Amino acid sequence: MRTRAAALILSAAVLCACAPTAPKGVDKAALDDAVSRAIGDPGTCVLIAKGDKLVYRYGSNVVCGRTLPACDQSVPRTLADLLAAAPAVGQPRTASCRSNAQGTRVVAWAAGPIEGGDLVYAAVMEGDEVPPGVIIADKLKTAFTRAGMGAK
Question: Does residue 88 lie in a domain region?
Answer without folding.
Answer: yes
